[in-house]
Every structure is written in C-alpha cells, then in structure tokens.
Amino acid sequence: MLWALLIATESAGQLFTKVAGDQLGQMDFTWQWLADVARNPGILAAIASYLGAFFVWMLILRRSSLSLAFPLSSLVFVAVLLGSWLGLGEHISLLHWVGVVVIVAGIVLLAEGEES
C-alpha cells in the first residue's frame, strides 16, 4: 500500500510539474513570473504531491533497507512514462518501452535476491 502511494504521489508530482511548466512558458525569472509560478494550480499540486511522497518515503524507509527501497523506487520512472503516454499523449519510443522492461526485470531480480 505504501509503495503504491509513493509511486502515485511522485508520479503525480512529475506530471503536474510538466503541465504547469507548459502553462507558464518561458522562464523569465522576473517577479511577475515568480508570482505566476506561486499561483499556478499545477505547481501547488506538484508541491503537495512531493510533500506527500516525502512522508510516505520516510515511512517506507522505517520498514525497509535503503539498499532495496531505493532501487524499487525506480518504478516511478515506469509510472511517469505511462502517465506521460496515457495522460499527456506523449509518444513513447520502442527504446523507452525496452527500458521499462529492463527496469521491471531489475526490480524482479532485486526482490528475488532479497528473499534468498
């Protein structure tokens, strides 16, 4: 349950950041641009998502070894790719899909090694 929540909150943070960045356009670093960033709902949602992910990550680390937990967190890469494809309509190349298979295979190997 915690893992699903971590993957969901971290992935949501990335997707919210992407959408907000597209809405905000060029980064001018003026006071007006910073005010626009501070009021952007996507940025606020991203910050909330990252904050939630931080606390979930702390709970996970209390229960798991870092040597297993950190590699397992790479499932976020897979979730962001799926969210980009399904939610944002981005094109995902064959090499990206191969990368997903490699990530998942690596996680399976790590999980099997942990059980041994």
Automatic annotation (TrEMBL):
Highest taxon above the source species: Bacteria
One Pfam family cited in the UniProt record for this chain: EamA
Residue intervals of the EamA domain: 43-110
GO biological process, one term: lipid A biosynthetic process
Keyword Transferase: no
Subcellular location: Cell membrane
Its membrane topology: Multi-pass membrane protein
Segments crossing the lipid bilayer: 41-61, 68-88, 94-111
Protein keywords: Cell inner membrane, Cell membrane, Lipid A biosynthesis, Lipid biosynthesis, Lipid metabolism, Lipopolysaccharide biosynthesis, Membrane, Transmembrane, Transmembrane helix
Keyword Lipid metabolism carried by entry: yes
UniProt GO cellular component terms: plasma membrane
Protein name: Permeases of the drug/metabolite transporter (DMT) superfamily
